[in-house]
Every structure is written in structure tokens, then in C-alpha cells.
Amino acid sequence: MSKPKKKFGETTVGKLLFGAASMANPALGNILKGVTSPKEAIAAIGKSDVSADEKIKLQQLIYEQQNKEMESITSRWEADAASDSWLSKNVRPLVLVWCIVIFSLAGLLDSVESIPFHIGETWNDTFEKVMMAVVLAYFGGRSGEKVTSIFKK
Prior knowledge:
Layout (H helix, E strand, L loop, with lengths): L11 H13 L1 H6 L6 H10 L4 H31 L3 H26 L9 H32 L1
Helix pairs in contact: 1-4, 3-4, 5-6
């Protein structure tokens, strides 16, 4: 059973944004209470009746905080790559291989009529999302590392 998704206001970015919005304009802080994602927060800010300058400042705050979070993930991955530990250097490729093997094996077992194995819809959907995240993180991370190394030269 999966955890319920956190509301945007319960995340670090959300708390920061709500604090800044409430200080800048209490009415805007009330507008942002029901949003569940940065995209919804930006849309709510755009639709609000506050001044254009305040809208721009708050939207920039969201983008800057999201960029900081992405940079911290990248720096963790770079630290793993620079480590002397074999496991920390290879955890991403190992997880990718594991996901591909399990997903393929489960798909094959599910498709053979003589084997009483069936993947439930909930598990299929969950594993699909995990697989997408792992593949995107691995190849996106690898691409980012290569681009960074090219620019450092």
C-alpha cells in the first residue's frame, strides 16, 4: 500500500512558499492553501489579484527552490561517483538492471497461460512508475554528468 501524496504545503518548498506568500500578502497565502504541486501554486499565483511584482517574486522563489533541490540531488550523485566504495558507484546501474529483469520476468510469467501468475493492476501501475523513475534518473543523471564534464574541460 502506498503512502498518500503529501500536500504541497507539507513539503519544504511549500512551507517556504506559504511563509513568503503570507508575509508578502496574506490573501495570497490563503489562495495557496489548497494547492498540491508547484505547478498548481504557480497557476494560483498567476490567477490571484496581487500585484505583478509580487507574482513574479513568488514564482521565481518556487523555481529557485526547485533548482536547489535538483542541484542537491546532483551533488549527492556526484559524491557517490567520486567515492571509493564499489556499491555507491554502482547502485544506480544495479537498480536499473534489477528493475528491468524483474519487470521482464513478471511480464513473461503473466503472459504464459499455463503458469498461474497474474500481475494486479495496482502493482502493474506502481511498478511502471518506479521503472520510469529509475530509467529517467539513471539516463538523465548520466547525461547530466557527461554534459557537466564536457563544460568543465
